[in-house]
Amino acid sequence: MKHLLSINDLSKEAAIDLLNLAVEMQQVNTREIKKIPALTGRTVANLFFEDSTRTRISFELAARRLSADVINFSVKGSSVSKGESLKDTVQTLEAMGVEALIVRHNHSGAVNTIANSDWSKAVVINAGDGTHEHPTQALLDSLTIRQRVSGLGNKGDLSGLRVLIVGDILHSRVARSNLLLLRKLGATVGVSAPSTLIPSTIANYCDEVYFDLDEALSNSFDVVMMLRIQSERMNSAFMPNSSEYSFGWGLGDTRFSKLNKNTLIMHPGPMNRGLEISSKAADFDQSAILDQVTNGVAVRMAVLYKLLAQEKKND
Amino acid sequence: MTNQRTIFRNAKLADGKVVDISVVGDNIESVGANLDLEGTEINCEGLIALQGLVDLHTHLREPGFEQRETILTGSRAAAKGGFTAVHAMANTSPVADSAAVVEQVFALGQAAGYVYVQPIGAVTSNLEGKQLADLLKMNQSRAAVTVFSDDGKCVSDSLLMRRALEYVKAFGGVIAQHAQDPNLTVDAQMNEGALSFELGLAGWPQVAEEAIIARDVLLAEHVGSRLHICHVSTAGSVDIIRWAKARGIKVTAEVTPHHLILTEDLVKDYNPIFKVNPPLRTEKDVLALREAVADGTIDIVATDHAPHTADSKDCEFGQAAFGMIGLETAAAVVQTTLIETGLIDWTRFQEVLSTAPAAISGLTRHGQKLVTGNAANLTFINPTAKVIVGSESESKSRNNPYLGLELCGQIVHTMFEGTFTVKNNQIQEIHHD
Question: What is the pLDDT of residue A107?
Fold first, then answer.
C-alpha cells in the first residue's frame, strides 16, 4: 500500500494492523513527552482545498508527534479558471520535497487523481474527498468502537457487532468509509435516513435499511452513529426542512431516553446540536464523541507511520 | 487536373459486389465490373468501397475555441476517419445562432477543403433556451441550415420546444435535441447507479434523458414535425423511440461510437478522459444500443467529436470538461462492435454512417448511391486491418478514450468531391490554387 485513498486499499488484516498500531500510538499520547522520533527530517503537507479545522489539526498533531515537519497549504476553491490548478499546486509541493500529501478536497476522487498522476512521488493520504471517502475517520471510529464496546477487547475485528448509521448516507464520505470498513471488520451495519438520502443501490453496501429510525432503534444496535446533516440538503428537496428532519431522524431526548444504556453514541463532528442530535445525547456517558477526537490523532499517527516509515522502507 | 480519370479497381461494394469505379472531375463516371478505361489505377482488392461517411454531430470549435480545434484540423481528422461531410455543432463563441456565423463556418469549411462542412444552427439565441434564434435566416443563408440544435444544452422548456418544432416545419428543418433534463442533472458527473454512489460522484439518472425524449416525441407527434434525438445513451430511451416509431412519429435517433463500446466502469479511477455528456452507461445499455442500430430503432451513428485541451482533462474529475474526440475512430468502432459481432452488414453500416445522416440533413451530394453521375465522395476501408489506437491524430486535441485499444478496420482512401483527402492511409495536403 503506497497511498491511503479509500478503505478499499486495505485488506482486513491491514486494517486490523493499523488499528493495533494506533493502540501503540495511544500510549505515546499518554506520556508526558508526547513525541517519538519516527519521522524526524521527513516533511508532510496538509493540502486542504476545503475548510476543516479539526481534521487538519488532528493530522498536524499526529505528524508532529512523530517528529515530522509539517506545512499547511490551504487553497480556497480549486477552479482552474479562478486560480492555480491542482496539478500546479501538487507540483509546487513536490518541488519543495514534500514526502506526504494529506489532502482534503471538495471533489470526489481528487486524491486518486493526484495519486495516479505523474505530478508527484509523494504518499497521498485522503483526508476527505468530496462525497467519496474519509478513511481515517472510519479507522478512528472502528478503533473507538473496539475500545468502548465491552467484550470486544483491544485487538481483533468487530464481528458480531451491530452498528446503525443515521443520516445523509447518499452524500456522506464518513458513511461510505464506515460502511466499507465496518463490514470488512465483520460488523453488521444498518442505515437509517429519509429515502431521498439513501441510494437505491444501498443493498450492496449495508445489511439492513430503515426508513423509520424508531424501528431501527428498536432492533438492538450496539452502536448508533449520527451523521452531520448539511444545511444545503434542505435547499435541494431532499427533505422539507430541518424540523422535519429532526422529527423523523434526529436523536432527540425522547428517542435517546428509550435507548439501551449500553448503546454507544457516535458523531464525527462538528455536531448540529438540536438538529441531528440533542445535547443530552451528545454529552451523556454513552457518547463516545470526544473519544473519537482523541483517537483521531492516534489513528493518523499510525497511518503516517505505516506509509512513511514502514512501507517506504520496503520499497 | 480535373479531367484526369482515377479508376478504383476491384473494390467490394457494401452489397458484396466487386466493381471498378471510375472518377472524372468531381463525379463518378462509371461503376461496373472490369471497366475498359484508362487512367490512374488504384488497386482496391480487399477494400470495401462506401459512400463517403457523413457525421451529423461534430464539434469543430471554431469560432471561439481554436485552441481545441479549428475547422481545418477538425476537417482533416474527419477525412482521416473516412468522412466527406460533417455537421458543425452550434456551441461556438459566438454561438452559431445567426446567418453571419453559420456563413462564416460554412466558408471556413470550404476554404479548408477536406470535407463538406454543413453548419448546424442553434435553436435558441445564444443557447440560452429563452428565445428562438434566427432559424429562417440561417436556413435561407448560403449555409442553408436545416438541422438546428442547442447541443450541449437541452431545450428544456416545453413550450419553446413545441414552437421550435412547429417553426422549422415550414422550411423542412429538424430539431436535434440534446435530451437532458437540467434539473435532474445538477452537477451530475457520471451515470447514476451503484458505481456513482461508490465513487461519490453526483449521478446522472437515465430518466433525465428518457423523460425529455418521451416528452419530445409526443410534442413532435402533436405538431407533426420532425425530431432528431442526439446521442441516445440508455436502454430505456431505445424503448421509447421504438414505441414512437411504431406509432408513426417522425423521429430519428443517433448513437455515438463511444456509447457502443465503452461503459461506466472506466470511470472507476476518476480518469477524466472517460467523462462525457451523456455519460457512459452500463453494459446492458451498450447492448441495447447495438441492437437498436441493428433493428433500425436508431437511425445513425454520429461521433459527437468533442475536442478539449490537455489541461481541461488533466485535473480533478469534477473539474474536467465533458467530451471525447472520435472522428478518426468512428468507423472502426462501428465495425468492431456491430459488424464483427454479426449484428449488421456493410449495407447497414453505410446506411447509418452515410445515407441516413445525409438524408436527415438533406444533403444532396453526400450519402448518395455509388452510381454514374453522383458525386465522387468515397471511402475505402480495409476491413481485415487490426489497428491499436495510438495518440497520433489530425485533431488538435488528444482526449481519445480508445488509446491502446485494438479496433477492426482502417480507412485507406477518402475521396472528397473527386480529390483524395486520404490516400494509402495518409492525409493529403490540399493545395488551393
Answer: 95
The answer, yes or no, to whether residue B61 has pLDDT greater than 70, is yes
- Interface test mutation site (partner B, options A49, A107, A197, A202, max chain B beta carbons within 10 A): A107
CATH number, domain at A32? Answer: 3.40.50.1370
- Compute the average pLDDT of residues B53-66: 98
Contact list, B271 vs chain A (CB under 8 Å): 116
Q: Does A260 touch chain B (CB under 8 A)?
A: no
Number of domains composing chain A? 2
In the block, cell 451523521 appears at A227
User: Is the sign of the CA dihedral B159, B161, B164, B170 positive or negative?
Assistant: negative
User: What is the residue-wise DSSP string for A29-68?
Assistant: HHSSS----TTTT-EEEEEESS--HHHHHHHHHHHHHTT-
Question: Does A82 or A270 have the greater pLDDT score?
Answer: A270
- Report how far residue A128's alpha carbon sits from residue A143's, in angstroms, rounded to the nearest whole number: 18
Among B200, B311, B319, select the one facing A78 at the smallest CB separation: B319
- For residue A128, the chain B residue with the least C-alpha distance is B200
Q: Check if CATH label 3.20.20.140 holds for domain B52-361.
A: yes
Q: Look up B304 and say whether it is catalytic.
A: yes
Q: Tens of pLDDT along A74-89?
A: 887 544 445 788 999 9
Confidence band of A151 (pLDDT split at 50, 70, 90)? confident
Asked whether the predicted pLDDT for residue B77 surpasses 70, the reply is yes
pLDDT beyond 60 at B1: no
Residue of chain B nearest A180, judged by CA positions: B198
Q: What is the ipTM of this complex?
A: 0.92
CB burial of A41-51 (b: ≥16 within 10 Å; e: otherwise) equals ebbbbbbbbbe
Domain annotation covers residue A287: yes
